[in-house]
Amino acid sequence: MKLVAFTASALALLAAPALAVQPTNPGGFGQDRAAVIHGMQDGTSPYSTGAPGASEWGKIASERAGQNGAINNAYKIANGDVPAGVTPGTGNK
Fold this sequence. Notes:
Shape: elongated
Distance between the termini: 42 Å
Largest sheet: none
Order of helices and strands: HHHH
Radius of gyration: 22 Å
Number of helices: 4
Number of strands: 0
Structural class: mainly alpha
């Protein structure tokens, strides 16, 4: 009976999915993005032009046109916001 219980436990462990590697800075990209948004509203962001937030986002969007995903991924890689071994945009998810 002990052998059956041990075998069942071992099989359950093998069948369980492997835990994903976590980023070195989990949630960092979202936190940084939120800080920029708040900074645009109060004028403390280096991206702030003094215009209302939506106007500033519109200016940034036109500057990043077609490259937004690549820019975001490069930022996440440089700041430890993706799990080790993951390289966005290469199919290595």
